[in-house]
Amino acid sequence: MIRIAAAAAHFGRDLDFDLRRIAKLISDARQAGVALLVLPDAALGGYLADLRRPDPEALPPALPADDPLLLRVAALAGEMVVCLGYCEAAGADRYNAAVCVSGDGVLGRHRKVHLPAGEAVAYAAGDRFAAFDTPVGRLGMMIDYDKTFPESARALALDGAEILACLSAWPTSVTNRAPRMAQDRQARLFDLYDRARAAENQVVLASANQTGTLGGMRFLGQAKVVGPGGDVLARTWAKAGLAVAEIDVGAEVARARRVLGHLRERRPDAYGTAR
């Protein structure tokens, strides 16, 4: 059995503030006996302030893949596995990126593959989904819009991931904001995608998200841990905090796949180009 936590928290442009908040969340998770902590997208540097017309002069700070701040998070993680998002600088390109670390260093990386229209102005796109081994099991990462596409989670599950870490800075609708967050279209979709991606691949999914506001963006929160049957094991709703669930990942994934094994019962020969 391990404890998995998904965080709902606010992060902005002040990197010192962000690092202090990450340290507090890691400390809280450690006190709760957590082995895997998933933090939101853009936990270092914050997300875009305007998704429709990003200001090129007000983008999140871009950090190299070996930036000392990332190494400090790894040191803070210690025995824990921690996933967090940041803006990665790679030559002339910037990526919306995620890194998975422990006290032993970097365990895995991901660059967001699917970019909504506004993000394409600010970031280059990643080009792959790959699972990797960690002390808590084989894990894969997705960022924000990646989880809208079933192929993202399916590719990671086919690569052996039994845990999916979904890091988001997912806002309420920017075109048709509802008077109450519970009625917002994006709130419904965020929850739907989390549960569907877990159930269709029969994996455990930890979904972290930002809270609060940045510029014209209002973030949903709704961090949660979802079991391989699509059942929500823990959630924060719209509040900041940690959704913590204790689960035997291997046993629960095996139980879900015992009779109906979605991955082994695939028929790629019947899917044509949709493989």
Short characterization:
Helices cover 24% and strands 29% of the residues.
Give the uncertain stretches in residue-range form.
Answer: none
CATH class term: Alpha Beta
The geometry reads as globular
The end-to-end span amounts to 34 Å
Structural class call reads alpha/beta
The quaternary state of the protein chains shown equals: single chain
CATH homologous group name: Carbon-nitrogen hydrolase
In the CATH scheme, what's the topology name?
Nitrilase/N-carbamoyl-D-aminoacid amidohydrolase
Secondary-structure arrangement, i.e. CATH architecture: 4-Layer Sandwich
Total count of strands: 15
For the largest beta-sheet, the strand count, sense and barrel status come to:
13 strands, mixed
Q: What's the Cα radius of gyration? A: 17 Å
| Percentage of residues in DSSP E strands | 25-35%
Explain this structure to me?
The structure is a single chain. With 275 residues, the protein is of the alpha/beta class. It has one domain: Nitrilase/N-carbamoyl-D-aminoacid amidohydrolase, CATH 3.60.110.10. 24% of the residues lie in helices and 29% in strands. It has 6 helices and 15 strands. The chain has helices spanning 15-31, 68-77, 119-122, 150-158, 185-201, 249-257, and strands at residues 2-9, 36-38, 62-63, 81-90, 93-102, 105-111, 132-134, 137-143, 163-168, 204-210, 213-214, 217-218, 224-226, 232-235, 241-247. The strands form 2 sheets. Strands 1, 2, 3, 4, 5, 6, 7, 8, 9, 10, 13, 14 and 15 form a 13-stranded mixed β-sheet that branches. Strands 11-12 form a two-stranded antiparallel sheet. A hairpin with a 2-residue loop joins strand 4 (81-90) and strand 5. It starts with a strand and ends in an 18-residue tail after the last helix. The model has no long low-confidence stretch (mean pLDDT 95). Keywords: Hydrolase. This is Carbon-nitrogen hydrolase family protein.
